[in-house]
Amino acid sequence: MGNGRARALPLALALLLAFSDIAVVAAQGTERIQGSAGDVLEDDPVGRLKVYVYELPPKYNKNIVGRDPRCLKHMFATEIFIHRFLVSSAVRTLNPEEADWFYTPVYTTCDLTPWGHPLTTKSPRMIRSAIQYISKHWPYWNRTEGADHFFVTPHDFGACFYFQEAKAIERGVLPVLRRATLVQTFGQKNHVCLKEGSITIPPYTPPQKMRTHLVPPETPRSIFVYFRGLFYDTSNDPEGGYYARGARASVWENFKNNPMFDISTDHPPTYYEDMQRSVFCLCPLGWAPWSPRLVEAVVFGCIPVIIADDIVLPFADAIPWEEIGVFVAEDDVTKLDTILTSIPMEEILRKQRLLANPSMKQAMLFPQPAEPRDAFHQILNGLARKLPHGKGVFLKPGQKVLNWTEGAPEDLKPW
């Protein structure tokens, strides 16, 4: 299924080309993003907002990383690197009286199981504990109950803090965060776990690691459709059909023997190189609508085929997803071959030229140290566009809006 199949694919595609209008080529050059999206992508947030970073006891952040450094590399690591970025950022203010936003650095995804999965049952307790701490030591939470505060919640379903959708919906957004702005990877329209006003961001992928695998831009894209990952999550969904709402299973059952589709559960050492040799990269939903493949596809210039109904994509006001990607409804997965082979060559070439734009790639990454126009700066741009805060964010003396006793009983335990 792995490299042998990849080597055989150009021959299969050559045969296909003889009977179709599809050509597999790589576009040369780049194309600037036109209109408001390009302008937003190139915004500079410095001078447009000031952020105050709370100093919390290290048990909420640094000590957790010290116990398990694996969380520096997984797809939820955004919360760690945003904290590090803000501490040295030009938008940081040490004077809370002049702050537009307040940030509470809590690493809710860094307490991992032996298998590397976040222990989400502890996350709500950590958040509640941290908020109790800042409300006791500073006056700023109390005057708005968090309406001028933002939190980074990179779980599968954001501040619903659970990886399975049914349970996440049952839990809902943590009640004490209902006035705060959430910076989260999860985004799905009309979903209880997507709070209005949230800023949707890409998941974390290691920028330095990806950059070490770059191939020459003139490398032919000889793989038509590429995907590596799970099709069935038998450990968490033993009966099948619930994981990825059946979309991944449908991809496998319909296209496992199709020579145009290089798909497998194997994860070869040439994974990043293979994406750069592919025209289309499948980005189906998993437990949540998003996955790191979306970032990888954009960075490696592989046209993302997004299979996730109603997904809200990262930085949607800055990145023209409709122009760079292909959207396939979950119910239409069985038609993937027809849909992709029907796309005109000029449209494929234009998508490739847009994906070659360095600003587009930069906006999907969290490099250390930060770089101009990267994902850190796009988050700050999103926060700046939400300013100024309306007068309604400030409560009258003694006024309370949030109910601290609301929520699941296990969330109310001390942390």
Question: Can you give keywords for this protein?
Answer:
10 strands, 10% strand, disordered N terminus, globular
Can you give a write-up of this model?
Keywords: Glycosyltransferase, Golgi apparatus, Signal, Signal-anchor, Transferase, Transmembrane. One of its GO terms (molecular function) is glycosyltransferase activity. InterPro entries: Exostosin (IPR004263), Exostosin_GT47 (IPR040911). α12 links the parallel β9 (303-307) and β10 (326-327). It contains 16 helices and ten strands. Helices cover 31% and strands 10% of the residues. It is globular. The protein is of the alpha/beta class and 415 residues long. The strands form two sheets. The chain has a five-stranded parallel β-sheet with strand order 1-2-3-4-5. The longest helix has 15 residues, at 3-17.
Unreliably modeled segments: 1-23
Silhouette: globular
Strand order of the largest sheet: 1-2-3-4-5
- Spatial separation of the terminal alpha carbons: 47 Å
Strand content: 5-15%
Q: How many helices in DSSP terms? A: 16
- Kindly report the oligomeric state of this protein: single chain
InterPro entries: Exostosin, Exostosin_GT47
GO molecular function, one term: glycosyltransferase activity
Keywords: Glycosyltransferase, Golgi apparatus, Signal, Signal-anchor, Transferase, Transmembrane
Domain Exostosin GT47: 48-343
Briefly say what this structure is:
The chain has 415 residues and is of the alpha/beta class. Helix content is 31%, strand content 10%. One of its GO terms (molecular function) is glycosyltransferase activity.
